[in-house]
Design brief:
Strand order of the largest sheet: 1-2-3-4
Number of strands: 8
CATH topology: TIM Barrel
CATH class: Alpha Beta
Number of helices: 15
Bound molecules: zinc ion
CATH superfamily: Metal-dependent hydrolases
CATH architecture: Alpha-Beta Barrel
Distance between the termini: 15 Å
Number of domains: 1
Order of helices and strands: HEHHHHEHEHEHEHEHEHHEHHH
Strand content: 5-15%
Largest sheet: 4 strands, parallel
Length: 353
């Protein structure tokens, strides 16, 4: 018996891997596009939401990437970024999320004349407004931003430096995203070295569209403490469950896997949730965490991901509890705040058990 989505919504959850430009409300896209004269495939919010899902689900990378041209087009002013960030927080809290890390690439939001700093501060302000609204509504949530560099761009340390500069002002980490095949993590070695010298946290998209060499570089050359997806790590696990050296290292070091089942279905990792590596990785005691990646493109929420996993792998509330605690343990916030998240998770799960 799957844990019903109504129960999943009540469970206190932590969202580690959620793209700000992949989680907009369709109604917001329509409103902001009209304001700036950006042409959309349709101006009906419900139809537009379907269009995003269908395009992401088409199996065509061109159509998948086209979806982001529309969301990014309406995230080019400070007001737009603030609104999207505020709604990100409100939507997460409404879904029962108590801590969320929103990742986005500031370099993609300068077409309207914003500077990198202005863009980061707009998102900061939006997250703060969202937290304030949610706290007042009795749904307290902490929300931070992870600054991303696009991995196909010319490697730079600029975004890593920006992340460190705002480490006490809403930015909790750094990431690289975008095309993985042909763009190994070590291209950004200088950025990761800079972050390590400054004792700053980062995650790396690795093991999603490319295999073990990408994961190995992310962990061993760059030093990531979390992996975006990392699902292809299963190719280092024998059919009898014996771990290869890299898989063993990642499990034993408790490097978090930010797993996004529905998103992986759309990008072809597997064709149904029951075949997703999540089941094997969880059984073998990796630090598995659950995220949405792009809620709009995958038409999902964190509660829905939990329900899907529960249905596919017969997880009960105790299993979901473990995944939430895993995520809290690997959140990019100080240890005392992670403990406080775990306390809230324990209390919330006790209330529904
Ligand atoms: Zn991602």
């Amino acid at each position: 018996m799957a844990v019903p989505i109504e129960v999943c919504r009540m469970l206190p959850k932590v969202a580690l891997h959620d793209h700000l430009d992949g989680g907009l409300r369709a109604s917001t896209i329509v409103a902001e596009a009209a304001a700036v004269g950006h042409e959309l495939p349709t101006t009906d919010p419900a139809e537009l939401a379907d269009w995003f899902y269908d395009a992401a689900d088409s199996g065509s990378l061109v159509r998948y990437l086209e979806t982001f041209t529309h969301t990014i087009a309406v995230m080019q002013t400070a007001d737009q970024l603030r609104r999207v960030a505020r709604e990100f927080v409100e939507d997460q809290a409404a879904d029962g999320v108590i801590h969320a890390e929103a990742r986005w690439a500031p370099e993609q939001h300068l077409a309207g004349g914003l500077t990198l700093v202005e863009a980061v501060e707009a998102v900061r302000d939006g997250l703060a407004e969202g937290m304030e609204v949610c706290a007042a509504a009795g749904r307290p949530i902490s929300a931070r931003q992870i600054l991303t560099s696009m991995r196909h761009a010319t490697p730079t340390t600029e975004i890593a430096e920006l992340a460190v500069a705002y480490r006490h002002d809403s930015v909790c980490g750094f990431d690289i995203a975008g095309a993985e095949d042909g763009y190994p993590p070590s291209r950004f070695q200088a950025a990761f070295d800079y972050l390590k010298r400054n004792n700053f946290e980062f995650t790396i998209h690795a093991g999603e569209a490319f295999g073990l060499p990408s994961i190995w570089e992310a962990v061993q050359l760059c030093g990531a403490s979390r992996l975006g997806h990392g699902v292809r790590l299963v190719s280092d696990i024998a059919p009898d469950g014996t771990l290869g050296e890299l898989a063993g290292y990642i499990r034993d070091r408790r490097i978090a896997l930010e797993l996004c089942p529905s998103s992986n279905l759309q990008t072809g990792i597997c064709s149904r949730i029951a075949d997703h590596p999540f089941g094997l990785l969880a059984k073998l005691q990796f630090r598995v965490t659950v995220s949405c990646d792009n809620r709009l493109m995958s038409r999902t929420t964190l509660s829905r991901e939990f329900e899907l996993l529960s249905d596919a792998f017969d997880y009960d509330v105790a299993d979901l509890h473990r995944f939430c605690v895993n995520a809290a343990k690997s959140a990019f916030v100080p240890f005392d705040q992670r403990l406080a998240l775990i306390d809230r998770i324990n209390e919330g799960f006790a209330a529904v058990s």
